[in-house]
Specification:
The protein is of the alpha+beta class. The chain contains five helices and ten strands; from the N terminus they run βαβαβββββαβαββα. The strands form three sheets. It has a four-stranded mixed β-sheet, with helices on one face. Strands 7-8-10-9 form a four-stranded mixed β-sheet, with helices on one face. The longest helix is centred in the C-terminal third of the chain and has 14 residues, at 197-210. The chain is globular.
Length: 213
């Protein structure tokens, strides 16, 4: 069993342990903090992991400062639904979810509910316009989709995205030596629970800046 201390790189440790099939133990999780132990979004991530795997086992002590994790088999699944809460953005869950789902037994289709855009985590637009196109360069071309059904902002959330991830057995190597030239600049303006005129004003202001370049 691999042993770690602290709350740093929590998702990375869980993801790597799952892919490698190695049990891990994490101690001293915020033991000196005013709010010690696992946070609600970390426990939520573990619940999400249980939905897409089979046979994983999570043991947490009474104070939440110690965790034992035995990974299971990544099974994927269809038509799953998970509420990510309103503490962290959906990007916090999408990053490890995509990494794990690619190596599952079956393709994954899941609907995530929560905050789509905030200042702490990558927004869902970044995944749709940057992450997914980049994955196509490593051989993932069909079955990969991220659809934004509803926007959700802090503090209440309420957003909804649909994610579809195919199964791959091997990733192609990528060699990018030429950074290329800037062809165009694109952006996304959105608004929730306010007048649509606010988004239109943002678009006009942005165009006024970039068109002058």
């Amino acid at each position: 069993m691999l042993k770690f201390k602290g709350s740093q790189f929590f998702r990375q440790r869980i993801v790597y342990a799952t892919l490698a099939g190695k049990s891990i133990r994490i101690d001293a999780i915020r033991e000196d903090s005013e709010n010690p132990g696992l946070q609600d979004f970390e426990a939520n991530f573990l619940r999400l992991l249980e939905r897409i795997t089979n046979g994983c086992n999570v043991e947490i002590n009474e104070t939440g400062t110690s965790l034992r994790y035995r990974p299971g088999i990544i099974t994927g699944g269809r038509s799953l639904v998970h509420d990510c809460g309103a503490t962290r953005g959906l990007g916090y869950f999408l990053e490890p979810l995509i990494c794990l789902a690619l190596f599952g037994k079956k393709p994954l289709t899941i609907t995530l509910n929560g905050i789509t855009n905030d200042a702490m985590d990558p927004c869902v637009d970044t995944f749709r316009t940057v992450t997914l196109p980049l994955l196509k360069h490593v051989g993932i071309e069909e079955g990969l989709e991220l659809r934004i059904n509803k926007r959700g902002a802090p503090p209440t959330g309420g957003g909804e995205v649909f994610l579809s991830v195919p199964v791959v057995r091997q990733l192609k190597p990528v060699h990018w030596l030429d950074c290329g030239l800037i062809k165009r600049i694109r952006g996304v303006a959105y608004s929730t629970r306010v007048s649509p005129q606010n988004a239109n004003r943002m678009v006009d202001a942005a165009r006024g800046v970039f068109n002058a370049l």
